[in-house]
Design goal:
The structure holds three protein chains of three kinds. By secondary structure, chain A is mostly helical. Chain A is 68% helix and 0% strand. Chain C is built from 26 helices and four strands. Classes of the chains: A mainly alpha, B mainly alpha, C mainly alpha. The interface between B and C is medium-sized, with 39 and 27 residues.
């Protein structure tokens, strides 16, 4: 195998680059440009948005996703082991066991950390929230004054 | 059932990875501790410290066996090498982790972000570093690198409420991923060129002269150097360093600057000196260039800094350059000097960042050069200790920094690499400037120029026992290695690679 | 043995005392500081005397005692131990230094009364004495050099003791700079010695040098050392600092001129006699420098009006004799040391008398404003007279025998140049008698010419006691070196070898020489008497008129200072101006600062690349990787 054998890949990459670049440049050159405010909206059709889309997404989604990956990988490891379980014997069983322990410890940990609590455990009343906001605000103001 | 047979009777050489196991196990124990009940993280720190010491004991025992009985060996199908080099660096990682643990407690309590997980992550990261030191397989190199890096990404962003820390974590993660990709690409190319990822086997293949594809190997080599060059913060792969070092919590920086660099150098030494030894004439010029650019770049850029943490970041870059010269010289004396330098550097950088962490006060507010004006009058002890580390880093005789530079340059001189030697000397002169400038600020700038802010009157810094222990240790070894370096030089000389 | 073992204490006691005084500062009240210092030097004197007794108790050939205290500089083949050497030569030196030094200390308690920096003064004095003792007791050239430099530094401190006035500071600076010139030669000499012999230990140098040193090398070494000696011992061309050194307090002058500092050069040459013996050329040059200095200084002394300046030039002149003595070799070594000791006594005496006069005259130093003091200050007058006669070389005072010893050594050396030197020495002796007579008459005789508000008085006992004590050896010390019965020569014989001896019997030549000297000195006295006592002011003016330009020439010290200023100082200033302004500031500074600034600017410029954007960082990394790839591929292609 020579480095030359990789040439087609390089040519392919080059072609891809040229194609992508060319389409971008050409569309800019060829397309007529008549922008209107409506056209510049994120959604050209439908309801005109009256406020910016919310900046924050609940972080729980990400946490769940990350945890899912961890268990996903666990399963990936477990399938082949399960297929060959008898051949691998006690050694395989011990290995898999230790692997699962290593996975369970973090599981306990994240549960303790409250990752599965979808919402705050205790709901605050509206007055409570307002009171807390005020306290924080005043503390900040005092700090600034100091 | 070929595969099953191979798996069913694996040699389980627990002894070969005992230090790593201890560190990783300690980390798991800490997590379990947290699961059971959250206590004062100081307890977690204590467990972590005990774990590093225990790991160090195992490493020392490994070192003793390897050097006295002279039986370096491979373990786990050639994944792990147990030789002087690995034992030596595993030991140094233990030291770095130990110092990192000691310096952390007071800082995180002060910042109000002390959580036990910190120590677990630190130990996992250190565990990765140790695996890196012992890795004899490119896959192992990569896995170890990821283990240590991912923990460091999290640690960099440890101060979640501080945007600088967040920025540091994000930048480190993105650029780290980028460099990991490059490294992985290099590993892939090397595998493509040789058909193996085992470094020892790779060396055999080259010595049998059955290289099918030198082009691939060379390209792979380049990408491996680039990928690891990122970890050791060699110019031009250093760009992340100042931002991350400035933003990340200072004890993390202290650990990162010492530990990650050890790991990066361990990987670089191992891959180049073992796997690609046959290509020495190809990688040597690359390293020479890298060393020259790194030394000069780090030193020159440090001059322009007004922030002490940033300045130390560039200084660590320059140090990486000096250590690289040892490897670039391609001589035994140079490698020995580089290893010595690494140890001396661990103590100096950990100590310096430890003092900076104390002086920065809550919220890391006082890290600019102007905040250090007249520091000697306000904090005489800390200022003196910091000045001492700065002198050591500048390479003043009587400190380990001098011996380290001397040892490295001896190797360079042995190799008759006069350009490298000249640049190294010039760079150390330049670097002396910014080290001494900080000393001047601390000792000789009582008056404040007009229009500049008066240094704030602050209560005296309080010392936690762990901090005191860490600083005493670092100062002691910096002096000791400066005055009686022979013991460690001999050790570094014995820390030879398996092949 | 025990006493000899304790010899290291001799320099240490004054040095420790100096340290105490330095630390105590003004907390130590006035007289106490002086007494502490005096007692310290006195203790050293007692110890020195013990050394003498210990040496006397040993057979002559066993009178050298060397003791190493510790290894000072062990650097490869270059080893310098801190060790001291007690032998007949160093013993007489330490006796002189501590003995005269103690008396001067005592005197200074009275003289410095009420000075603002009383303690500081005694700190310097003790340091000075201690340094000189280090110099003399050292057993190798490097340790000698340590003392040599310390002495130089102390002289700087003491001459500039009243640093508030600018002439004093200038004089101190001058002494320091001129001594530096001499030190340079000395250091080069040491390096030459080390390069040839491989050691700086006296024992090694003196035993090895004769076999390994060529005559040319010996000449080079000796001349280099001689440069050092001309600096310390105030010889042509480096004598100019000594007269200016009068600026310091009078006890300092006494100390510099009699016991310490200036004797260092003579001592050093005497100590290195083995080297001088190897090089007749160096001997000749040494004698020439000595005798010419003796003559020139004597001429200048005649024209001076400052009471201390006259004595200062007389010191230069007498040092010339000593240098000539040790330069001629043979009996001259012992004779030179003999004169050194005798001169130490009477010159200390003269200076202290002068100090007494100055104090009595309310710090007036101009002899034109004195006169007729013999009745007002009887003790000072009598003791001064003794010192004056001793310096003149009148029988039976100390100077008569000691100076004659040198002249005899010159005469008997038997070469043409030594005979010429002898003749010149006689002229110098005549001039010496003349200018001392002039001073004696001007100060103590004639009509009082004091300023109106001056009321001369005798000095307190603290000052007169040292005068009386010093008058005794000034009178009697000559007996130590009676021609034909020369105890001192015999004492020093173990050091200088048999060559140092001289005929035991008083022969005709020696006797004739003695007589000649006496006649010359006597006639000098008579001339002095005739001009400055007998003659009237008008007659003196007529004489001066007849001599024409010679008088201002002499009064202005032969314009040597001016010549030095024109030849060295001003070009030197110009050179430093050029070097400082042009070379240093514009050239080197520009380079240094420019380099620094360039790096700074480079740092700032490159820092711009550090813009905080991850994409930029990634781009730089990628570019770096690309450079590597291109490099490797280019190499691969070219291979």
């Amino acid at each position: 195998m020579q480095l030359g054998d990789y040439l087609p890949i390089a040519v392919m990459g080059l072609l891809a680059l040229i194609f992508g670049g060319a389409s971008y440049v050409l569309s800019g050159l060829l397309a007529p440009r008549k922008p209107t405010p409506e056209k510049l909206q994120p959604y050209e059709c439908g309801i005109v948005p009256e406020y910016e889309p919310p900046q924050r997404f609940p972080v729980q989604f990400y946490l769940i996703a990350v945890i899912f990956i961890a268990f996903d990988i666990e399963v990936i490891f477990m399938y082949p082991w399960a297929v060959r379980m008898r051949d691998l014997g006690m050694f395989g069983f011990a290995l898999m066991g230790s692997f699962m322990v290593m996975l369970i410890v973090p599981l306990i940990y994240i549960i303790r950390e409250g990752v599965l609590d979808w919402a705050p455990r205790r709901r605050h009343s509206r007055d409570e929230l307002i009171a807390r906001y005020r306290a924080e605000h005043e503390a900040a103001a005092r700090e600034e004054a100091a | 059932m070929l595969i099953a047979d191979a798996i069913a009777a694996p040699p389980s050489d627990w002894w070969a990875i005992a230090p790593q196991l201890v560190l990783g196990g300690t980390a798991v124990v800490i997590i379990l501790m947290i699961c059971v009940k959250r206590v004062d993280p100081g307890w977690n720190a204590l467990v972590a410290a005990v774990g590093t010491v225990a790991s160090g004991v195992f490493a020392w025992e490994q070192w003793r066996q390897v050097t006295t009985d002279a039986n370096p060996r491979l373990a786990y199908s050639g994944m792990i090498a147990v030789d002087g080099f690995s034992a030596f660096l595993v030991l140094v990682v233990c030291v770095a982790a130990f110092l990192g643990v000691l310096l952390a407690d007071q800082y995180f309590k002060r910042e109000g972000i002390d959580r036990g997980e910190y120590y677990a992550l630190l130990l996992f990261s250190a565990c990765g570093m140790q695996f890196m030191a012992a890795a004899n397989n490119l896959v192992m190199v990569f896995v170890a690198l990821e283990l240590l890096s991912i923990c460091l990404y999290v640690l960099s962003a440890w101060n979640r409420d501080d945007s600088r820390s967040q920025e540091a974590g994000a930048k480190y993660l993105l650029l780290g991923a980028y460099s990991s990709a490059i490294l992985l690409f290099g590993i892939a190319l090397l595998y493509g060129g040789t058909g193996t990822t085992n470094l020892a086997r790779m060396a055999e293949i080259f010595s049998e002269n059955v290289t099918r594809e030198p082009g691939l190997v060379l390209l792979g080599m380049v990408f491996v150097i680039v990928g690891l060059g990122f970890k050791i913060a060699a110019v031009p792969f250093h760009m992340w360093t100042p931002d991350v070092y400035q933003g990340a919590p200072t004890p993390v920086v202290g650990f990162m600057a010492s530990g990650a660099k050890i790991a990066g150098f361990a990987g670089l030494f191992r891959v180049l000196e073992t796997g690609l030894a046959a290509f020495e004439f190809d990688w040597q010029p690359l390293l020479v260039g890298l060393a020259i650019v790194t030394m000069l770049g780090g030193s020159i850029l440090a001059i322009a800094q007004r922030d002490v943490k940033r300045m130390l970041a560039y200084s660590s870059i320059a140090h990486a350059g000096f250590i690289l010269t040892g490897l670039a010289s391609g001589t035994a004396a140079g490698v020995r000097g580089a290893l010595f330098y690494l140890v001396a550097y661990v103590f100096m950088i950990a100590g310096a960042f430890g003092v900076v962490a104390l002086l920065a006060r809550r919220g890391e507010r006082y890290t600019s050069l102007d905040d250090y004006r007249d520091m000697f009058r306000r904090e005489p002890v800390l200022a003196t200790v910091l000045a001492f580390f700065l002198f050591a880093m500048a390479g003043i005789p009587g400190t380990s920094g001098f011996v380290a530079k001397f040892a490295v340059f001896t190797g360079v001189a042995d190799a008759h690499q006069w350009v490298l030697l000249t640049v190294g000397t010039v760079a150390s002169v330049i670097s002396a400037y910014f080290y001494l400038r900080l000393v001047v600020y601390m000792y000789m700038r009582p008056e404040v120029d007009e229009g500049e802010a008066q240094p704030a009157a602050l209560p005296r810094v309080r010392w936690a026992p762990a901090t005191v222990v860490a600083l005493v240790l670092t100062v002691f070894f910096t002096i000791q290695l400066g005055i009686l370096p022979q013991g460690l030089l001999d050790m570094a000389g014995k820390a030879t690679l398996l092949f | 043995m025990q006493i000899l073992d304790s010899a290291w204490l001799i320099p240490v006691i004054p040095l420790v005392s100096a340290g105490v005084l330095a630390l105590a500062g003004r907390r130590l009240k006035e007289p106490i500081a002086g007494w502490v210092a005096t007692v310290a030097v006195g203790a050293s004197f007692v110890l020195s005397f013990g050394q003498l007794i210990a040496l006397v108790g040993r057979p002559p050939e066993a009178r050298t005692f060397v003791r190493t205290l510790y290894e000072w500089i062990p650097a490869g083949g270059f080893r310098v131990p801190v060790s001291y050497r007690i032998d007949p030569l160093s013993v007489v030196m330490i006796l002189l230094i501590t003995g005269v030094g103690a008396l001067i200390h005592l005197y200074a308690i009275g003289y410095m009364k009420g000075d603002r920096d009383f303690t500081r003064f005694f700190f310097y004095l003790n340091l000075f004495v201690g340094s000189m003792l280090v110099l003399v007791l050292a057993d190798n050239y490097l340790l000698l050099f340590v003392g040599w430099e310390l002495v130089g530094a102390c002289s700087y401190l003491l001459i500039g003791f009243w640093y508030q006035s600018s002439p004093n500071a200038t004089a101190a600076k001058k002494a320091f700079v001129v001594n530096r010139v001499g030190d340079f030669g000395f250091v080069v000499g040491l390096m030459l010695i080390f390069s040839v012999v491989g050691s700086l230990d006296y024992g090694a140098v003196f035993s090895i040098a004769p076999s390994v040193m060529t005559a040319a090398m010996a000449t080079a070494v000796c001349l280099c050392l001689l440069v050092g000696a001309t600096g310390k011992s105030a010889q042509i061309p480096l004598y100019v600092w000594l007269p200016d050194a009068m600026a310091g307090p009078t006890p300092v002058s006494a100390l510099i001129h009699a016991a310490t500092m200036v004797t260092a050069g003579v001592y050093m040459i005497a100590r290195s006699f083995v080297l001088w013996d190897l090089s007749p050329t160096a001997q000749g040059i040494t004698v020439a420098i000595g005798i010419i200095t003796a003559l020139v200084a004597a001429v200048i002394a005649i024209g001076q009006f400052n009471i201390k300046k006259v004595l200062a030039y007389s010191t230069v002149s007498q040092l010339g004799y000593m240098i000539a003595g040790v330069g001629v070799g043979g009996a001259g070594y012992a004779a030179g040391i003999f004169h050194l000791l005798a001169h130490g006594f009477f010159k200390a005496l003269l200076f202290l008398c002068a100090g007494s006069v100055i104090v009595g005259m309310h710090h007036e130093e101009d002899m034109r404003k004195m006169g007729g003091l013999r009745t007002k200050m009887p003790i000072t007058f009598i003791t001064y007279t003794i010192g004056f006669l001793a310096l003149d070389g009148i029988f039976p005072f100390a100077g008569y025998f000691s100076k004659d010893g040198i002249l005899a050594a010159l005469f008997e050396h038997g070469t043409w140049w030594s005979q010429v030197a002898w003749a010149l020495g006689l002229v110098g002796a005549f001039l010496t008698a003349t200018y001392m007579a002039r001073q004696w008459f001007m100060v103590f005789f004639g009509k009082p010419r004091w300023d109106e508000d001056v009321h001369p008085h005798e000095s307190p006992w603290l000052m007169t006691v040292p005068l009386i004590v010093l008058a005794i050896p000034s009178t009697l010390f000559g007996t130590a070196g009676l021609p034909g019965f020369n105890q001192l020569h015999r004492w020093l014989e173990p050091v200088f070898g048999v060559a140092g001896g001289e005929p035991e019997l008083l022969n005709a030549t020696t006797f004739a020489l003695l007589l000649t000297s006496l006649v010359v000195a006597g006639s000098g006295l008579v001339v002095g008497w005739a001009i400055w006592y007998r003659a009237t002011a008008d007659q003196r003016a007529t004489l001066a008129g007849r001599l024409g330009g010679v008088v201002p020439f002499v009064r202005n010290k032969l314009y040597v200072d001016e010549a030095y200023a024109a030849t060295f100082e001003r070009p030197g200033y110009r050179l430093t101006a050029v070097l400082g302004d042009e070379m240093d500031q514009r050239g080197i500074d520009w380079l240094v600062m420019g380099t620094g600034a360039a790096f700074k600017r480079a740092g700032a410029w490159f820092s711009k690349g550090q813009n905080g954007l991850i994409r930029a960082y990634a781009a730089v990394m990628g570019a770096g990787a690309l450079v590597f790839v291109v490099y490797v591929l280019a190499r691969g292609v070219s291979r």
